[in-house]
Amino acid sequence: MLIDIENLTLTRDKNILKDVNWQVRRGEHWAMLGMNGAGKTALLNAICGYEFPTKGTVRVLGEAFGKYPWQDIRKQIGWVSFSFSEMMHDQLQNIGLEVVLSGKFASIGLHEYPADEDFATARTIMQNLGVDYLEKQPYAHMSQGEKQRLLIGRALMAEPDILLLDEPCNGLDFFAKAQLLHTVEQLAERQETTIIYVTHQVDEILPVFEKTLLIRDGEVFDAGRTDELLTSETLTAFCRAPVQVQHKNGRYVLEVEEEQPL
Ligand SMILES: Nc1ncnc2c1ncn2[C@@H]1O[C@H](COP(=O)(O)OP(=O)(O)OP(=O)(O)O)[C@@H](O)[C@H]1O
């Protein structure tokens, strides 16, 4: 078991997470779907040990939070988020290859000299993600989509067991989004790492995400096989509004039905 969460409750001013149970096995890829404020980031924070459980247990890679040095666990987790991409301003003048290499040292900017094999690994990762053409381009001059793909490469440099992709399509136009989703799909198919893909959007849940966690108001609404959960009936209950879900060409499409006048 890679992630094993039992009865997790996080209380701050209010209950942010309530009795969350969730198990992720090695080799599975999960989507996490929830509206704004559902508790997605809080759950990622708990997994990475940035939030201390009020109640319940968080186990990652077989170790229990509070009983193991979590900085060692964090090294096995790659977290790529849109907000992180905004924090990279210190790295603006670094070129693509340096940004990817910096993932080896978990640093923003490159302060240590990488070994020859690190250069080779970074180049292979960039090639696999289709961003090898950015090797010499300054981070500051890249488009948002290029930055997001490069930051996935940066996370992969540490060979993480778990890759958290936190709303990676935020701010992308439809073409950059399609490109990024294609990159994620290929990465998932290579099975190098277990991916948890966090999103508000049903259409980003690719067939490679065979499992989905539906989170609402800090609680797990449902978790299980994606094809069983992404139905009109379940998502109507989840959204508290009538929606239609269609499965077209391997992609889910959600339409909000117009409210019928009473
Ligand atoms: N430290 C805190 N103290 C009080 N409330 C908090 C704290 N951290 C988060 N919250 C609240 O908990 C709820 C869940 O927040 P969280 O950021 O996890 O949502 P989210 O699902 O990631 O939302 P979004 O999709 O908008 O990013 C929100 O209502 C938020 O305001």
UniProtKB/TrEMBL annotation:
Any single GO molecular-function term of the entry would be: ATP hydrolysis activity
The record's InterPro entries line, in alphabetical order, gives: AAA+_ATPase (IPR003593), ABC_transporter-like_ATP-bd (IPR003439), ABC_transporter-like_CS (IPR017871), P-loop_NTPase (IPR027417)
Q: Which Gene3D superfamilies match?
A: P-loop containing nucleotide triphosphate hydrolases
Q: Specify the ABC transporter domain's residue ranges.
A: 3-242
Q: Which SUPFAM superfamilies does this UniProt record tie to the protein?
A: P-loop containing nucleoside triphosphate hydrolases
Keyword line: ATP-binding, Nucleotide-binding
> This chain belongs to which protein, by name?
Iron complex transport system ATP-binding protein
